[in-house]
Design goal:
With about 475 residues, the chain is of the alpha/beta class. The protein has 3 domains: about 130 residues, no CATH class; about 80 residues, no CATH class; about 160 residues, Rossmann fold (3-Layer(aba) Sandwich), CATH 3.40.50. The protein contains 24 helices and 11 strands. The strands form 3 sheets. A 7-stranded mixed sheet has the order 1-11-10-9-4-7-8, with helices on both faces. Strands 2-3 form a two-stranded antiparallel sheet. β5 and β6 form a beta hairpin. α2 packs across α4. It is flat. The two termini are about 25 Å apart. Keywords: Membrane, Transmembrane, Transmembrane helix.
Length: about 475
């Protein structure tokens, strides 16, 4: 029996034994298709859900994952979580999986019998070993506290929270507690005091208590020799959070030089997202708690332009379809953006792929068919997103000419003006006649209506709403 990484062998063996005993009980629900558990776990960890419909601006617990746990296959999910490497785009889904495995979510499982209780207890004990691996940043701790806000504060629960503080260096504690002062509904000081009773040796408790108190009063001056921000968080994570938090106030010359070097790095530009940089810049420019640095604004603008002009070599053959109607566009007050600005940035990300093409029908120039951004020398895609063609006709053209695409991506603001049923019918016809492995992605920057007729299909996915990480989530879906 191979023990997953970062899991204690004894606790894992106990879980496997308790799980087996529970599944032998008549009361244990039966699970069909348990060979798909790994795929479903990876889909949730990368996208935040297992169904065809994902609401990106709302994190919800997944019924399919909860059912797998209820049927006694928690160790299978634990194995996938242990192997998973969360990043700035997917960390929240790893936190949600952790909470479900611990049975600490808002609607905990009703206990059937003693064997069921033993199984859930063993699953929680084995899962907690992953806390240090998954919970590194304060917003991950905050999300954990929000998702477990109805959980009883047992010793095991308090010790899990204590682990987050004990694993941090002084530099990390001061920086994180200063610029993420609220976690869940608690200040760090209040949360730490709630854990006091779990300490036998108060020296550790008092050391961190003193640091939290000084940080609350003096800010970063609580640690005069604190390291530069980019040395604590890393340049990529600092840039990712630059627009949202007042952490930018503490950037020194060294920090800015490192950030500038990153924004000018060709490899980073190739991997980064135009949508992410646009939203980060707008968060930064609209942040009333800081004095904006004109040079920093310029660096973001330059990085955005370079991304739009650069290409990425992605192996997937993608057909990008625009369904953007200007009449549906709304102003995003907090970002000083329109819906069409967001869809244009998303189109820029999608069309940077050398293998991405759009349909065009420009007969005077004898351009009818599918062309890449580089073949048409498109320039900025803000105007091109309004060059709409009926999606059904695009599928019909691709089918008639037997043009191979791995993915079709339809970008719109809402689905109100999109004949979804007819489009999916044409997609199914394309799969039947051209490429049975093709997949269809629909992205609504503001919202999409659920389409229940899709059922459990995994080849069609709807992203409702857009956030700064949307393009990275689309890439993750393509690579699943």
């Amino acid at each position: 029996m191979k023990v997953p990484p970062n899991i204690h062998e004894d606790s894992y063996q106990e879980l496997v034994s308790a799980q087996k005993e529970y599944r032998n009980q008549e009361e244990c629900p039966r699970l069909e298709g348990n060979e798909e558990i790994g795929q479903l776990a990876n889909r949730f960890l990368n996208l935040g859900g297992t169904s065809h419909f994902l609401r990106l601006n709302a994190l919800i617990f997944d019924d399919t994952i909860k059912n797998i746990i209820a049927c006694g296959y928690g160790s299978h999910l634990l194995e996938e979580l242990a192997k998973f490497e969360p990043n700035m785009y997917t960390h929240e889904y790893a936190v949600a999986m952790f909470v479900m495995l611990c049975n600490w979510d808002l609607t905990p499982t009703v206990i059937i019998n003693q064997q069921h209780q033993n199984y859930l207890d063993a699953l929680r004990t084995a899962t907690i070993a992953l806390f240090k691996h998954l919970f590194r940043m304060p917003y991950e701790l905050s999300q954990f506290l929000v998702l477990t806000r109805t959980t009883e504060w047992t010793t095991q629960y308090r010790l899990t929270i204590i682990m987050w503080y004990m694993e941090k260096t002084e530099d990390e504690l001061v920086l994180y507690t200063r610029y993420w002062p609220i976690v869940g509904n608690f200040t760090h000081l209040k949360l730490w005091k709630l854990c006091k009773d779990e300490f036998v040796d108060l020296s550790h408790y008092l050391r961190i208590l003193d640091l939290l108190e000084r940080t609350e009063i003096y800010g970063l001056r609580a640690l005069p020799q604190i390291k530069p921000v980019v040395d604590i968080m890393g340049a990529r994570l600092t840039v990712f959070h630059l627009g949202k938090y007042r952490i930018v106030r503490e950037l020194k010359r060294y920090d800015r030089e490192v950030i500038e070097a990153l924004l000018n790095d060709e490899h980073w530009v190739e991997q980064a997202s135009a949508l992410n940089i646009l939203i980060t810049r707008k968060h930064y420019e609209s942040n009333i708690n800081i004095r904006q640095d004109i040079r920093m604004c310029g660096l973001f603008s330059d990085a955005y332009r370079r991304m739009c002009k650069s290409d990425t070599d992605i192996s997937h053959r993608v057909c990008v379809i625009t369904g953007v109607f200007s009449a549906e566009s709304k102003k995003k007050e907090s970002l000083m953006l329109e819906s069409t600005d967001i869809t244009a940035a998303l189109m820029e990300d999608l069309m940077r792929n050398k293998n991405a093409k759009m349909y065009t029908s420009h007969r005077p120039m004898n351009l009818v068919g599918f062309y890449s951004k580089y073949e048409l020398e498109m320039g900025p895609l803000y105007a091109w997103q309004h060059c709409k063609y009926n999606p059904r006709l695009i599928f019909e053209c691709a089918t008639r000419n037997h043009i191979i695409f791995d993915f079709f991506v339809l970008v719109c603001i809402t689905s109100q003006s999109i004949p979804v049923a007819g489009v999916i019918l044409m997609f199914d016809n394309y799969k039947r006649l051209v490429n049975s492995n093709a997949k269809f992605i629909i992205i609504g920057s503001d919202s999409l209506a659920e389409y229940e007729q899709l059922g459990d299909r995994q080849d069609v996915i709807l992203f409702s709403g857009v956030k700064s990480t949307t393009y990275h989530l689309v890439k993750l879906y393509m690579n699943l």
